[in-house]
Batch of 2 targets.
Target 1
Amino acid sequence: MGADSYQFHLQAKYLDVNGRKAIGAQLQALRIAAANPASELLVRPEKDVTPGQPRSRHAYIPKVATTLELIRQVMERGEQVLVGSAFQDGLDTLSARLHEAGVKHLVMDGRITQKRRGELARLFKQGCPRAMREGLTTRHSEYPVILAGVECMAELHSFNLCNNVILTAYSWAFDKFEQFINRAHRLNSSWPVNVWSVICDGSIDRKLEAGIHEKKDAAELVLDGQLLGETPEEVDLHELLRTAQSEFRRVKTLDEIELEKGWLKLCTNLKLAYLNWDGMRILPLAETSIKSESKQKFAIGLTYWRQRWHAKYFANSTAPNWI
């Protein structure tokens, strides 16, 4: 279970080369376990005898299920969403589920060259069905979702027609976090931007979120000249670990096997939401190149029957077992 993996790293003994406690390495492992308990980055500390397994067999945790549900809601509104994580394998887990649901998406992380990132950004920034309906663009992108590494999102990318951001794993650096959100939160944004932080309750994510907000408040005070000459306080890593251990004990955990049972329904809903999102590309007759009225009616009828057939097919399809 994912909770078992997180608990293992709470109790494991992390030591440096001199035999002293390596609190930083332990906190990093907790960050990874909260983002993806099945991550290959999770290993047993050297010479550690803590009972249990450092990695879970289940990558489908409540954080993943919640993120996919938010993506479905965004597609139903005819909008796009930018999903960010500090860890690549967390993006891989989401990508695999979206592939299974037939949802076209882009992945932009540190494994992709800078040139290719620019190409992917241009494909995504063509806009969404909502932008097309409101006359902001004449055609929209094929991709409602882009999965991106928080620290690889360069300042040159501007997604002003995307008004949804989901964060699944925080970066320690406040500037990277702020820069990521600002890819969608632009001066020329067409609509208010929604930002969701998907957090595992009782995990170190909650402390990281609080730290991010503190840094943001401090940055605003510095810009206002109210913190000049102030001495910053150092973070007590031992206290942070003790807090993480205490907060986890009070949390009610969820069995991922039970969670997996709801995947088939969510998968079907994602498929239908994407079909509707993609079908909006040819619905406005004013934007089509078909001049004959009879051909226009045929185009609408073809779209309707295609969606109806897919809806019937997907309602009877079965998803493979990930367990």
Note: The first helix runs from residue 2 to 11.
Target 2
Amino acid sequence: MKKLLLIFSVLVSAHFAFAQCSSCTIPFVSSSQGIGSSTAVTIPLPLGVSVNDVMIVAVHSGWCSQGSSVTPPQGWTPIAQTSNTGSGCGPINSSVQLSTFYKIATANEPSAYIFTGTTSQTYVGSIVVYSGVDLLNPVHAFSNNGAQDSCSVIRASSVNTTVCTRLVGVFFCSVNSSATNLVPDVLLTERADVGTTGNNPWGNENLMMADRLLTTTGATGDFVSSLWGCSGDGWITGAQLIALTCDLSLGTNLAVTSETFSIQPNPSDAVFQISMAQPGTGSYMVTNALGQVVRAGQITGTVWPVDLSGEAAGVYFIQVNTLQGVTTKKLVLR
């Protein structure tokens, strides 16, 4: 793993040789995930979704010929399908191991979405949500790399951008082992990671989604992931890199930083007052030390309460997402 991290560090310089572009945020809102059997997977609506947020879903299934095309619910637009053509499945494999779609959120979203396949097996899926995306052209560019088979270097190929973007990397790996944790490129922030256990029927299915905000244009460079504890070739792997288009009409107001966002009292016995230096709209999410979401909601005005009554004493984290940026702070509940 240390060798891989060194490789990642060497690649860092390749990600910054671009021309500058206008300021952009595209804040991450939240994510959800699901595991399904038979011919479908149900994925809950992520917390904190607002009208005009953009949802990206990825569904992975299949060991070579057992891969499946996926039919989304109404309102989802296809992005790409990936078929593994590495040594694991062979160059003529045409079954689909990864399908991605996007949807612009409305005021009447269901509590969950069912994505349906064509073969009876295990399916895994994740949804990630972003605000501040150009609704006329949400997906600016994408790459699709199924011609690989190593579980230690799963590569999402570079895309060329001409606008400000947030990159969403989608990585999958089917392996006949107990490994289930996909680790993102050091330049990416993990947003969702779902995997199965038991090696049934053809192996464990692993799916991870991670992102990075780019404020420059040009070739993005490749991004990679690795399956922790797995080595060797001949596995069923692949990746997509999706560039979301920034809505520059939203402007470039004061960024949300630790200086513009405060918490009182902290520590608290139950209720925390969250204050912002200027009015903002967006969402917030509170997670515990295990990363589980315990509270989420919409931001209104400059001051609002977060009530953690009923939660165990300890350390929590609040993430504030607005059109001007994203920041995270620690909450201490007594």
Note: The chain is about 5% helix and 50% strand.
